[in-house]
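FORM 12-B: Structure-to-Sequence Request
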């Protein structure tokens, strides 16, 4: 979780490292990271933002692991790096629909 500190004019500030500083209005939700913290793929869809706020991961990870066993997920159960790597390969092999 980000450590937010008061700034001014109803804003908060946080230093997240690597020279990155975030500023947000008080009361607004924390920003969604650019990459899923589980599979390290970009969060590119609004559903990814919703899933991140609810489950702490992208929508595909939520569908694959959280929905399968929400109780284990909420108590800290996570897949190993080998399982995540296999899932990423499986996602890449999935056929894509082309929009023409």
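FORM 12-B RESPONSE
SEQUENCE OUT:
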């Amino acid at each position: 979780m980000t450590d937010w500190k008061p700034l001014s004019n109803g804003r908060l500030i946080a230093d997240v490292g690597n020279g990155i500083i975030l500023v947000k209005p008080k009361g607004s939700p924390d920003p969604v990271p650019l990459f899923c913290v589980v599979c390290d793929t970009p969060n590119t869809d609004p559903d990814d933002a919703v899933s991140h706020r609810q489950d702490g991961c992208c929508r595909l990870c939520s569908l694959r692991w959280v929905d399968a066993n929400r109780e284990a997920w909420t108590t800290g159960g996570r897949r190993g790096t080998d399982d995540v790597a296999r899932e990423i390969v499986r996602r890449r092999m999935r056929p894509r629909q082309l929009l023409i």
